[in-house]
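Lecture notes, continued. The same structure-token format from the folding unit now serves as the input rather than the output. Read the line below as a description of shape only.
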């Protein structure tokens, strides 16, 4: 039995993949007998293969209520996507299928089909100079989910703002009070910036993966193509599609730059938006004509890249904290993933959210030079069904 440890998709994750040539019947019990490495639980993954031949399935053993809930969510999401009327069989081939599922007293066990290839994270580590085309390929792979399940909303009510901004900000504020109270005012400033920028925004909402990072994408090699999209425990309908896109872009850059997410996000905010290679990957993936929606109207809304970056970072940071809040190294996580972004927000003194869409799309800083942030079209719209809340 050979063993290799995957770089965690989130700080302090103990997820690991074990290549098992002949899985002993008692291996699950051995795994369950070991204490979890973090108080919120962990997930161990075992690659199952016959004595001769290719891997056929992945066994996941989740301990703790949070990890168990993620496996249950993945099972439900994959079942819904499998019968979604607007998703075709060719795209669904990228998804794992749940082969078996069992809830035990001390663990939740799931067996899913194996998606061939290698992690995009591994390919980026070996070929960092190919990050633009590899990122574009990953964005193109998720695009059919966004387009085919899309509907359009105008952010003109408190319900959407509560779900997208107010509730995540409440979690971030609580976190800030515990770890760095001096930055609480910057959380409030961030909330003002996002609310001003998003009110009146017309955007596609759709099913999203929720944790679309290189470690959750399988590829055949450096030339592609994408062969699988895994770990759907964070997927939800009715979410802004750009969160999946920006998260892939930012986390791919974290890997090739060998930098923490907070550092990358802060640098992009100070620079006024995405790097050229990041913007090129996004545009390449979206490079198809807009499709009609319902009565034939077309959506031409654009959004300041800094708004997309901040909204994506906010959702990802709060989600990661929910997963690792009890870990003893949370101060390090805060210092590398959260504090640099709030410091960058403070340094810019915000930007004029009313100009974050349409028009010039330029940020205006108080007491600092004005920074122009390019406008990026929202996720390519397509004829879609009504997204669920």
């Amino acid at each position: 039995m050979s063993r290799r440890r995957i770089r965690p998709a989130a700080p302090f994750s103990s997820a690991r993949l074990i290549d098992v040539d002949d899985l002993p019947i008692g291996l699950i019990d051995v795994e369950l007998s070991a204490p979890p490495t973090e108080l919120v639980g962990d997930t161990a993954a075992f690659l199952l293969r016959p004595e001769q031949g290719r891997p056929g399935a992945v066994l996941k053993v989740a301990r703790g209520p949070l990890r168990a809930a993620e496996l249950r969510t993945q099972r439900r999401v994959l079942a819904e996507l499998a019968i979604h009327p607007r998703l075709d069989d060719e795209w669904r081939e990228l998804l794992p299928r749940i082969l078996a599922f069992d809830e035990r007293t001390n663990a939740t066990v799931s067996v899913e089909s194996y998606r061939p290839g290698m992690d995009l994270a591994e390919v980026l580590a070996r070929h960092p100079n190919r990050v633009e085309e590899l990122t574009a390929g990953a964005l193109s792979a998720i695009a059919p989910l966004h387009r085919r399940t899309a509907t359009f909303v105008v952010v003109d009510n408190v319900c959407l703002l509560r779900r997208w901004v107010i509730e995540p900000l409440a979690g971030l504020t609580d976190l800030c009070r515990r770890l760095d109270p001096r930055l609480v005012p910057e959380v409030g400033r961030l909330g003002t910036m996002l609310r001003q920028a998003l009110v009146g925004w017309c955007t596609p909402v759709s099913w999203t993966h929720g944790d679309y990072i290189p470690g959750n994408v399988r590829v055949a090699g450096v030339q592609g193509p994408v062969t699988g999209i895994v770990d759907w425990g964070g997927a939800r309908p009715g979410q802004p599609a750009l969160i999946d896109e920006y998260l892939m872009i930012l986390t791919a850059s974290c890997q090739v730059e060998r930098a923490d997410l907070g550092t990358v996000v802060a640098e992009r905010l100070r620079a006024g938006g995405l790097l050229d290679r990041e913007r090129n990957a996004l545009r390449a993936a979206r490079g198809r004509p807009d499709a009609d929606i319902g009565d034939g109207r077309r959506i031409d809304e654009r959004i300041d890249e800094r708004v997309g970056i901040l909204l994506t970072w906010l959702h990802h940071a709060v989600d990661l904290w929910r997963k690792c809040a009890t870990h003893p190294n949370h101060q390090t996580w805060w210092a590398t993933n959260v504090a640099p972004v709030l410091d960058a927000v403070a340094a810019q003194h915000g930007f004029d959210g009313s100009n974050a869409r349409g028009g010039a799309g330029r940020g205006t800083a108080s007491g600092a030079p004005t920074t122009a942030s390019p406008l990026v079209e929202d996720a390519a719209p397509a004829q879609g069904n009504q997204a669920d809340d």
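Point for the exam: The two ends are 45 Å apart (CA to CA).
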